[in-house]
Design brief:
Blueprint: H1 3-19, H2 30-41, E1 44-50, H3 51-57, H4 62-65, H5 83-92, H6 113-118, E2 121-128, H7 138-156, E3 161-163, H8 167-175, E4 179-186, H9 195-203, E5 206-210, H10 238-250, E6 253-255, H11 261-270, E7 276-280, H12 294-303, E8 306-309, H13 313-316, H14 327-341, E9 346-348, H15 368-377, H16 382-410
Parallel strand pairs: 1-2, 2-4, 3-4, 4-5, 5-6, 7-8, 8-9
């Protein structure tokens, strides 16, 4: 065989290997090639990533620490004299400023645009989050600043991302080749006990509200994070029930991650629409206060809702202080939820953002295809994997929108603050 023909064969084999998603010279793995094809075809939606580090990628850390800087195009790399303004933020997130379109080289970064593209992400819920804010009015102000940050990113990079507020908009943005960004608010305390704030969040594009974070609000009990939090309301207070009802009317998804078991069941008793757990895992693999029991999974399925499995090691690994948690543990949670709740009621909500250890193979968003591969290894069929990676979430969004349209025809908004 002459040299030219040999070279042509080598180039052809190399091209096929790259097209199949594997390095040249690597032996064919039909299952991996199936995973690559499936992952690139389906709508991959992650239901929860903390917003703070996402804005850090866009050189906008001051949006959180100094509300007055919001929308002013602040770039600390060009104005080092402003560094003291963002110092508290940098203590939480040490990387220097980076551009949204750059691949972030720092070990603390889980998610940037190149990694999202590499991981096949088509849609991402970004969560407005902050610790408890003792100063009246500041939780709302800081939440508005973060929401403004998301809107600014969408305005600044319209060729890459678009804000989605409905299931139809998610599909339209994805079909255009862009990534759909959706907004959630992680912690009901950010409405500061005022339904008008809830309505303003909704008008700005917020599509889910996590009823509590790791502490009780004035109207709902939390599960806590490290250890259970003593209840003060026995679940939802009367005002908490009003919050759920108003969310139904507005078309906002009720998120029951972080809530106490009693709050969970109270929310299901009140809601007229499906709910989600945007970033929770299961007691059947790891017993933890913020994970869902099998009874809760079955109740969630009866409601039509979806549990989105979290990948933070301390919530999922039943072995304490393991040197390296394998990705198989995360897959165990997904498979258990599929077995108990059923294929229509499981999703993914990785909870990327803060410097929390992840399983080996899930270090950042670029690794999502490995989840698809391991699910196929466990015998999960393609149709179910499509549901888990996005279709179940869009089904919930569609139903929440339908219920809201019906409720708005029946009743006017409450005048209560």
């Amino acid at each position: 065989m002459n040299t030219g023909i040999k070279a042509a064969i080598v180039l052809a084999v190399t091209g096929l290997a790259v097209a199949a998603g594997r390095p040249a010279g690597q032996a064919a793995d039909p299952l991996r090639e199936q995973a690559h094809r499936l992952h690139r075809q389906m709508l991959v939606l992650d239901a929860h990533a903390d917003l703070g580090p996402f804005l850090e990628m866009d050189s906008m850390p001051a949006l959180i620490t100094d509300p007055g800087m919001a929308g002013r195009g602040y770039d600390p790399s060009k104005d080092p004299g402003q560094a003291p303004v963002v110092e508290p933020w940098r203590k939480l997130f040490p990387p220097p400023p980076w551009r949204f379109t750059d691949r972030h080289a720092d070990e603390h970064t889980y998610e940037d645009l190149p990694r999202m593209r590499e991981g096949g992400v088509k849609a991402q819920f970004v969560a407005v989050y902050m610790d408890r804010e003792p100063r009246p009015g500041m939780a709302v102000k800081r939440a508005f600043d973060q929401i403004d940050g998301v809107l600014s990113v969408c305005e600044k990079y319209p060729q890459h991302v678009g804000l989605a507020t409905t299931a139809a908009e998610v599909r339209r943005i994805v079909d255009s080749g862009r990534i759909a960004l959706l907004i959630g608010v992680e912690g009901g305390y950010m409405i500061e006990d005022d339904l008008r704030i809830l309505r303003l969040f909704n008008r700005l594009g917020v599509r889910y509200l996590t009823l509590t974070h790791s502490f009780n609000t004035n109207w709902a009990d939390s599960s806590g994070t490290g250890k259970p939090v003593p209840p003060i309301h026995d679940g939802l207070s009367p005002f908490g029930r009003e919050v759920v009802a108003e969310m139904n009317r507005l078309g906002m998804i009720v998120d029951i991650t972080h809530v106490s078991d009693k709050t969970f069941y109270d929310a299901l008793a009140v809601t007229k629409a499906p709910v989600i757990a945007s970033h929770s895992s299961v007691d059947g693999v790891k017993d933890h206060p913020r994970n869902l029991s099998d009874d809760m999974l079955r109740a969630l399925a009866r409601n039509g809702g979806v549990i989105h499995i979290d990948s933070v090691i301390k919530y999922i690994d039943p072995v304490e202080n393991r040197n390296g948690t394998p990705l198989s543990i995360f897959i165990d949670h997904v498979v258990h939820a599929l077995k108990v709740a059923g294929p229509d009621h499981v999703g993914i909500g990785n909870d990327y953002g803060y410097d929390a250890p992840r399983p080996i193979g899930m270090e950042d968003v670029s690794k999502f295809e490995e989840v698809t591969y391991q699910l196929l290894q466990r015998g999960v069929d393609e149709a179910t994997i499509r549901k888990v990676w996005g279709e179940n979430t869009l089904r919930v969004m569609t139903e929440v929108e339908r219920v809201a349209a019906k409720l708005r025809q029946q009743a006017a908004p409450t005048t209560r603050q």
